[in-house]
Design goal:
The complex is a heterodimer. Helix content of chain A is 40%, strand content 11%. Chain A is of the alpha+beta class. Among the domains of chain B are: 3-92, Roll (Ubiquitin-like (UB roll)); 346-497, Dimethylsulfoxide Reductase, domain 2 (3-Layer(aba) Sandwich); 687-793, Barwin-like endoglucanases. Classes of the chains: A alpha+beta, B alpha/beta.
Chain lengths: 168, 794
């Protein structure tokens, strides 16, 4: 919930200023009093801020007429929502069964070593955030990872860093 | 009707019964954590696994989720099922902190029980445990998430059953967290039920935290007397102190739950200023001296002015035993009274309501839950009888339509139609309804359609905000609806029905009139405080002051107790027990819980030490109930009633008041006699018709305004401030907004209020909720109308 050790290295503002929060207003206007549209609203909000801090959640809760606890419940349920700021590119490395047996742990170890961060961590230059996921539904290409919106398959420890080099 | 075999025994159960319930009917209790009869199955804990050996399904399956079907052969003791359950326990205990020695749930913990039963005693997994950071959930519920086993009972109760949204499930998988978005006070007035419903120590009772181990407390079945519903509770006492009240299951009345007012309102019995010793003119004295003084005083007044110079006052919170003794004593001695109600209007309204309800078929909470059309007239369920709101919600969840005719901005955990009618308008609407039952459609859209498809109608009717003729109209209206309609009366006190049945013509107002005329010289007040909620404080003070003798028998540190010439303390329901008749006419009995006395814990804190004198009983013990004191008084003035104990009272009462006692405890009375005079009360002219002034309606809220819970310190943190409800338009014309602070001048006193606005409030009405009653100590007379000149911004 709160920023842990390594996130502290990134410059994080304590509170989101009011004028930044006002960017939410078009989203709220679009979905006002329609509790069923909570997930699209949160998704769009995360696209603006990169993450979903408490103030953003509360504002959306009031706008869509749902309780803040409900919004928090949804945000904490789905792995794609985050409450801590992430890097420019999120590396989602699949640790599902197929990827696991095809060598995903070695890929993960290589990335961790090269970027000097653990799972859930963000590089000090805010370039990458590393997270693990269970299955990306591309088991035929195992081991698989996603970087941002792109999916990369048939990974090998030797070449994985070349892929990451494409992302600045 | 499916027939199935469980552990070699055959049973036939109604269709839809779960296997876990079918087994329970046979006396086989399958272990469970997430399953609760009121909440249904969740299949979350996996503990109720049994082996289905033959029939439509086979294998180890969850008995809470599977409906009994023909030909099933179930074994609860099959080795496969037993070993499955054993492993489930081991998994559940893997992350458990094993802190039973400091856990308040210890001793009545379901998880502890099943763990011991399974034989699990060694944690084999050496890895680190999952841990959470706890939240502060307010003054009632203590959270300790590490003990949670994810049964989902709390969320299912809080959101599904009770309908509040601020507490719920957060996160996913083994990190699921039951709490709020941020720390804060739980919004639901039913939050205390989380404590009862949690099968582990994850949610425990905060006020009684670390006060006693379960096996050390004195416990007894009792009743909640904080409203007229008569919910059943279990009370725990420890070291002369009431420490906890829990809901006690009674399928006919409250079901599994109670509200927070009933759960945390008990603290009046531990009040530091509670009268513990008899006193004459404010000086503590012995029992025998106080009684002798009272007898001498009564005899003197009788000699000088006759028996009619002694007025007797009691209230709706007195037990049936006290009421009966008092009625008999008045008959025997010729004293004036007893008066149970404040004024004639209240008496007639209560009587009329009881009559109307009993003659149309009275409804209780169970009937409300089964109804498909509920009309609320002049009642704010959450404020007046909180658990009623929960019952209405259950009906609503099954598809019932709910409508309300009340000027207050009612809040209920469900969707309903409300029309803020009051007085003339309400009368007109009800008249229209009585002439043509679909006439209500104009004020409550959807009424007609709901009426057409309805089978069971319940009309919830309260006497506080509607007047006599509206009550009568409502009776006519309900009889028009025919046999499928019942009336659910909501009274003010726990024994109002009995009080209206036993009342003669006397009311406190009529006695006060006689005091002013000089006809009454002495007053005997039994568990009554006329100052509570009074609108005529000045008049009342003058009347009490002019009396030659005031004898008060009570257990509250009330205002009238402070003015008593002779004070005799009485026992609360926790020390003396008692019988009460609830709003549906159900006679129920409470057992004494403990002997009473000054709580020991207060000595340990160093303040208010009990007297260091030699005595047989514990210090401050008040073993006598008010009816015992009354019998003693009667005996001493030579008017003995020939009653020795409770059994005698019940025997005499059965002969004298057969309508109250024709049932055994637990049954419903049917009261035919005691008809209401048909002549209309003189109706006061509406003073606001011609002027610019607003009429004042005084109301109470859930945690402020009820007499006993007023004195409970446990409820202090949740009591609301004084509020003034305005019509939204009227308020905005005057530039008032929600949350503004205002002063309202009454006589020479200014009272602070917080502004609330609602479109539901009629424009010529000002609804005042005094909140903490202390504010009213200063006001000598509450005005009937208030003009804008008397309202100023703070």
């Amino acid at each position: 919930m709160s920023a842990v050790g390594q996130e502290r290295m990134i410059e994080v503002v304590d509170r989101i200023p009011e004028e930044e929060l006002a960017k939410l207003d078009p989203i709220i206007a679009k979905y006002a009093h329609r509790p069923g549209y909570l997930i699209p609203a949160l998704k769009e909000a995360q696209e603006i801020f990169g993450y979903l801090p408490q103030e953003v959640q509360t504002r959306i809760a009031h706008g869509l007429n749902v309780s803040p606890s409900y919004v928090y419940g949804v945000v904490s349920f789905y792995a794609f929502f985050t409450m801590v700021p992430r890097g420019r590119h999120t590396i989602r490395i699949c640790l599902g069964t197929a990827c696991y047996v095809k060598g995903a742990p070695e890929i993960l170890a290589k990335i961790e070593q090269e970027l000097c961060i653990g799972v859930g961590g963000t590089t000090p230059d805010r370039r990458f955030t590393l997270v693990e996921v269970r299955c990306l539904g591309a088991c035929g290409l195992a081991p698989v990872m996603m970087v941002g919106e792109d999916t990369h398959g048939n990974l090998e420890p030797g070449t994985v860093m070349d892929i990451l080099d494409q992302y600045k | 009707m499916p027939r199935l075999t469980i552990d070699g025994q055959v049973i036939e159960v109604p269709p839809g019964t779960k296997v876990i319930d079918a087994a329970e009917a046979l006396g086989i209790v399958i272990p469970r954590l997430c399953y609760h009869p009121a909440l249904g199955p969740a299949g979350a804990c996996r503990l109720c696994a049994v082996s289905f050996l033959d029939g439509p399904v086979k294998g180890v399956l969850m008995s809470c989720s599977i409906e009994a079907r023909d030909g099933m052969v179930v074994s609860t003791e099959h080795p496969e099922a037993v070993s499955f359950r054993k492993q489930v326990i081991e998994w559940l205990m893997m992350n458990h902190p094993h802190d039973c020695p400091v856990c308040d749930e210890g001793g009545h913990c379901l998880l502890q029980e099943v763990t011991v039963a399974s034989g699990h005693c060694r944690r084999r997994y050496p890895g680190p445990k999952r841990t959470f950071v706890d939240q502060d959930l307010g003054p009632f519920v203590q959270q300790e998430m590490n003990r949670c086993i994810h049964c989902w009972r709390c969320r299912r109760f809080y959101q599904d059953y009770a309908g509040y949204r601020d507490f719920g499930a957060l996160g996913i998988g083994w990190r699921t967290y039951f709490g709020r978005a941020t720390s804060g006070v739980l919004e639901s007035p039913f939050s205390g039920n989380l404590v009862d419903i949690c099968p582990t120590g994850a949610l425990t009772d905060k006020p009684s935290r670390f006060m006693a181990r379960r096996w050390d407390v004195e416990r007894a079945p009792s009743l909640c007397i904080h409203c007229s519903l008569g919910c059943n509770v279990t009370v725990s006492a420890h070291l002369r102190e009431i420490v906890q009240v829990e809901a006690r299951y009674n399928g006919d009345v409250n079901g599994h739950f109670i509200c927070d007012r009933g759960r945390y309102g008990f603290d009046y019995a531990n009040h530091p200023l509670r009268p513990r010793s008899p006193a004459v003119m404010g000086e503590e004295t012995s029992w025998s001296k106080a009684i002798a003084q009272a007898v001498a005083g009564i005899e003197e007044v009788t000699r000088a002015h006759g028996p009619k110079a002694i007025g007797v006052v009691s209230s709706e919170r007195a037990s049936l035993e006290a009421m009966v003794t008092l009625s008999l004593l008045c008959e025997e001695t010729g004293w004036e009274g007893p008066a149970f109600f404040q004024d004639e209007e209240t008496l007639v309204k209560n009587r009329l309501l009881a009559q109307v309800a009993l003659s149309h078929g009275i409804a209780g909470l169970r009937e409300v839950e089964k109804a498909d059309l509920i009309l609320i007239v002049g009642t704010d369920p959450i404020c007046e009888a909180p658990l009623l709101a929960l019952a209405i919600r259950q009906a609503w969840r099954r598809g019932a339509w709910v409508g309300a005719l009340d000027p207050r901005p009612i809040e209920l955990p469900l969707t309903f139609e409300q029309s803020g009618l009051w007085d003339e308008e309400l009368k007109k609407a009800l008249l229209k309804g009585a002439q043509r039952e679909e006439g209500l459609e104009e004020v409550l859209p959807g009424w007609k359609e709901a009426l057409d498809r309805s089978r069971e109608i319940v009309v919830i009717l309260g006497p506080t905000v509607v007047d006599i003729s509206s009550l009568r109209r409502c009776g006519e209206f309900v009889s028009k609806l025919g046999k499928k309609a019942r009336i659910f009366p909501v009274f003010r006190g726990p024994n109002s029905l009995a009080a209206s049945a036993l009342s003669r013509e006397s009311t406190f107002r009529s006695l006060a009139r006689k005091i002013r005329e000089g006809k009454i010289k002495a007053l005997l007040l039994v568990e009554a405080d006329p100052f509570h909620g009074t609108k005529m404080r000045g008049e009342l003070e003058a009347s009490i002051r002019s009396l030659e003798l005031t004898i008060v028998i009570d257990y509250l540190p009330s205002e009238v107790v402070k003015r008593a010439h002779i004070l005799i303390p009485s026992a609360t329901i926790y020390e003396g027990g008692g019988s009460f008749i609830n709003q549906e006419g159900r006679l129920q009995r409470a057992s004494p819980v403990h002997r009473g006395g000054i709580p020991l814990r207060r000595n340990l804190q160093g303040n208010l030490r009990p007297p260091r004198t030699f005595a047989k009983g514990p210090p401050g013990e008040t073993a006598k109930s008010s009816w015992q004191v009354l019998l003693e008084l009667g005996e001493r003035i030579g008017k003995g009633l020939g009653i020795e104990d409770k059994e005698d009272i019940w025997k005499v009462a059965r002969e004298r008041f057969p309508f109250l006692w024709q049932v055994e405890p637990g049954g419903r009375i049917s009261w035919e006699g005691g008809g209401v005079q048909e002549e209309a009360m003189e109706e006061e002219e509406d003073p606001s018709q011609s002027s610019q002034e607003m009429r004042v309606l005084l109301v109470t809220s859930t945690f402020a305004g009820e007499e006993l819970s007023q004195y409970s310190s446990k409820l202090d943190p949740v009591r609301n401030e004084a509020r003034a409800f305005f019509n939204e338009e009227v308020a905005s014309q005057r530039g008032l907004r929600r949350g503004d602070r205002i002063w309202i001048r009454m006589g020479d006193v200014r009272v602070p209020f917080s502004v609330k606005t609602s479109p539901k409030v009629p424009s010529k009405l000002l609804i005042l909720d005094p909140g903490n009653e202390g504010l009213w100590r200063e006001v000598r007379e509450v005005s009937k109308t208030i003009g804008w000149t008397e309202i100023e911004r703070a």
